[in-house]
Amino acid sequence: MPDGVFGEGRLVRWTLIALAVGFLVLFLVLPLLAVFTEALRRGAEAFFASFDDADTQAAIRLTLLVAAIAVPLNLVFGLSAAWAIAKFEFPGKSVLISLIDLPFSVSPVVSGLVYVLLFGAKGLLGPLVDDWDFKIIFAVPGIVLATIFVTFPFIAREVIPLMQEQGTADEEAALTLGASGFRTFLTVTLPNVRWALLYGVLLCNARAMGEFGAVSVVSGHIRGLTNTMPLQVEILYNEYNFVAAFAVASLLAGLALVTLGAKSLLEWRHGDALFPARRH
Amino acid sequence: MSVAALRGWTPSIAKPSVLPGFGLTFGFAVSYLSLIVLIPLAVLVWRASALGIDGIWRVATTPRVLAALQVSFFISAAAALVNVVFGAIVAWVLVRYDFPGKRIFDAAVDLPFALPTAVAGIALASLYATNGWIGALFAPWGIKIAFTPLGIFIALVFIGLPFVVRTVQPVLQDFEREVEEASATLGAGRGQTVFRVVLPALVPALLTGGALAFARAVGEYGSVIFIAGNMPFVSEIAPLLIVTRLEEFDYAGASAIATVMLVISFAALLAINSIQAFSRRRFGHA
């Protein structure tokens, strides 16, 4: 790029790069470094000892359980919604698409609040739930519900535009050749959207395991029972048990890094299959 | 005969199609959407409507709630503004220049989406505390960052960072260089070309990204509470006040504040949609 009229001069260019890199280092790299530094402050032994705690282990198990329920449910929803929206014409379609994105514009705290209003002790259905001797709020079902709510759009919003782009010709061909509807879905539609599906699942899972605000409102913070990993981080931190708090946090940060790495790899290797509309 | 008749009769609102499964998938998707999202949100609106408009107004204008809403609103706006400026620079640098480590920085932009907010919160709090790496640099000057409104600002800049970069990047990528060359050929200096030709085309994306960052920041909870100090009237954000009200079993109060926040975020959403509609008309892209 020649200097002057067609591009920026060397000085301007490197000043802008320095500004951008400085901003990213300050706001992204340093916090990440801080997590791992604080976790290892007292050495590797103290780091690993943090995971010897029964409550911390229970929190890790609960986080895995919640993600294992929420992600598959949202996956089935995403595929159903995408099939109905992309393969058929019906009135109100654009309204349905915007309603799916609704949870993204709701504060996490409000996402938890709506379930307390519904199932809490003084909630709308609270007495009914009580009669059945079943706990939702301050128990695992509430945590699962709140997690499903905040991760609701992730998979659907990746799959819907892609399926819309691909149209119905492939499926019609398969049906004409005698395949059943279900077989067509499994062998034609699913392979066509597999990378977008994986992409959505990755993002959905990261948010499901890391959600704090919504889960915090419905959990009740009962040690060993209703604490997920992010809530355990909060409790340990508020007890000034910094090494343990950052040790658990470093697991979540590791998950975030793996998610980002896999996401970049997918965009790089399968970008055309992911966002056909965005490329040429 | 009745079976055949049943098969022929499709209770569908969709246009006829040879593809099967509309009833099943549409039915499941809409039921799931209603159960998980629509009905719970409707309950919130119903709860709040029991208070009436003046009831919500009374709750929203009590000094402590008003202070919290102001803290959330103004600091979110300031953080969004910083993200618009730096997001534009970051997007520009990532699209136009080559430098070592560019790929990694590009991937890192999404970190605030992927990192759990509680983790971000304690990391920022430890960095900006008076004995932290960054806080210690400012402490000798008598500037406290963590546990003040400044700390909230830092957390909200972090959380909103990807929005502007990711909305501006694709627009900049698709921007035709020929337009810039034409501008240069017609005698414009580089500065004139950038500010009078390129920048106006980026304005809708910048506004959209800024509005998205703002909407996210207003509702943000996890990353803020660790660094905020959470002093009523000074550094207490609106989402935290909802949690406090809930812990006092004041459901009505919590619903009223939540409704005000929903209105703010829907207003932001509406603004985003109008910007995009305008941009499609004016520039042919969103």
* Parts with pLDDT < 50 across at least 5 consecutive residues of chain B: 1-9
CATH homology-level superfamily of the largest domain in chain A: MetI-like
**Compute the gyration radius of chain A: what is it?**
23 Å
CATH topology of the largest domain in chain A: MetI-like fold
DSSP strand tally of chain B: 0
- H/E element string of chain B? HHHHHHHHHHHHH
The portion of residues forming beta strands of chain A comes to: under 5%
Structure class of chain B: mainly alpha
The level-1 CATH class of the largest domain in chain A: Mainly Alpha
User: Which stretches of chain A are low in confidence, meaning pLDDT under 50 for 5 or more residues running?
Assistant: none
Q: Whole-number average pLDDT of chain B?
A: 89
What is the architecture of the largest domain in chain B at the second tier of CATH? Orthogonal Bundle
H and E order of chain A: HHHHHHHHHHHHHH
Major β-sheet annotation of chain A: none
**What is the count of DSSP helices of chain A, taking H or I runs of 4+ residues?**
14
Describe the global form of chain A. Answer: globular
The quaternary state of the protein chains shown equals heterodimer
Number of strands of chain A: 0
End-to-end Cα distance of chain A: 24 Å
User: Largest chain interface and its two residue counts?
Assistant: A-B, 99 and 96 residues
